[in-house]
Amino acid sequence: MRAWVFHGKTDIRLEDLPEPAPGPGEVAVRIAYNGICGSDLHEYLHGPLFIPVHEAHPVTGHVGPLTLGHEASGKVSAIGEGVDDVVVGQRVALEPIFRRPGDDERYNLDAAFYGLMTPGFLADTAVVRRSAVHPLPDGVSLQAGALTEPMAVAWHAAARTGLTAGHIAVVFGGGPIGIGTALSLRARGVDRVLVVEPSPDRRAVLERLGLASADPGADAFPGQLRSFVGDGANAVVDAAGVPDAVTAGIQALGPQGRLVVVAAHLAPVPIATNQLLMAERSITGSMGYHNDFPDVLRQLAAGAFPMDGWVQTIPFERLIAEGFEQLRSGRAVKVLVEVAGE
């Protein structure tokens, strides 16, 4: 089978690998679409960061070159012994956490992921544990199903804000997770959401999705932000992963407001702790997802995550030129790789 295999920084190769077969408790899935994540781009540009190229991963045992991809949909192609609640041909989305036995209460914390710590989904076929398989609702396409994973990250971050109708939120970062978080907050009844994003192209996408946006580089930005939040936002989500988002985010919070960090930072970020202390503000993390896939699939079926204008599909063979390089240049927002398609 075809597979895109990570060997090192800017070294991802299209290879022919043996077709995998499911063992007990496993399911083989013929991949339809796989999205490119920001973590994939970081590995391509700066890796290996999380991929265990030089020594075995303590949870998965994998070491060496690794098939990328962890945002996928597809059709069940084979079933291992002991799996009796999915059928061959069933349309599914894949939750790419490599579960440890007995860790259901916090399986998203310090998690190992398919496509980063064990072979992933940028291949014709992937074998996963049954826990990774979520049937797609009727009306949700395989293309939309490949968005389940990043939208689950966003849905979890929105949940971590604790906000409901009538609250005010600011999201820093207008990439896929920032867009998904703003849409998730809207689906939860929070209709006052501002997305802070420097790219004019991404702000145009946000406008088409009916989301308010602001340019942090504009002279008018401080006044625009103050006008939007009034006495302060109830929550701010850092989906940008840059220090300025944390600094400005804390300043935008009102009393007892909460900053939710969902973006990974590549370096430590200085924090003025007195700004937290004096107004009882707090900072919390949001790691992946925990039992969020069913909610996201229902929201996809309800149309909460429209794809038009920010999601594009590329051929499998064009992963580097039309996927990673487009994302690196900022010409794309979200890229899905068509493997087998619909």
Q: Quick gist of this model?
A:
The protein is α/β, with parallel strands linked by helices and 342 residues long.
Question: Would you write up a description of this structure?
Answer:
The protein has 342 residues and is an alpha/beta fold. Strands 3, 5, 6, 7, 8, 15 and 16 form a 7-stranded mixed β-sheet that branches. Strands 11-10-9-12-13-14 form a 6-stranded parallel β-sheet, with helices on both faces. The protein has a 3-stranded antiparallel β-sheet with strand order 2-1-4, with no helix packed on it. The mean pLDDT is 96. Helix 3 packs across helix 9 (293-302). It has helices at residues 38-46, 142-145, 148-161, 176-187, 200-208, 221-229, 243-252, 273-279, 293-302, 319-329; strands spanning 2-8, 11-16, 26-35, 66-67, 72-79, 91-94, 125-129, 133-135, 168-172, 192-196, 212-214, 233-238, 253-261, 282-285, 311-315, 334-338. It has 2 domains: 2-147 and 307-338, Medium-chain alcohol dehydrogenases, catalytic domain (Quinone Oxidoreductase, Chain A, domain 1); 151-285, Rossmann fold, CATH 3.40.50.720.
Task: Indicate the topology.
Elements: E1 2-8, E2 11-16, E3 26-35, H1 38-46, E4 66-67, E5 72-79, E6 91-94, E7 125-129, E8 133-135, H2 142-145, H3 148-161, E9 168-172, H4 176-187, E10 192-196, H5 200-208, E11 212-214, H6 221-229, E12 233-238, H7 243-252, E13 253-261, H8 273-279, E14 282-285, H9 293-302, E15 311-315, H10 319-329, E16 334-338
Helix pairs in contact: 3-4, 3-9
Keyphrases for this structure?
alpha/beta; 7-stranded mixed β-sheet; 2 domains; Rossmann fold; 342 residues; 10 helices
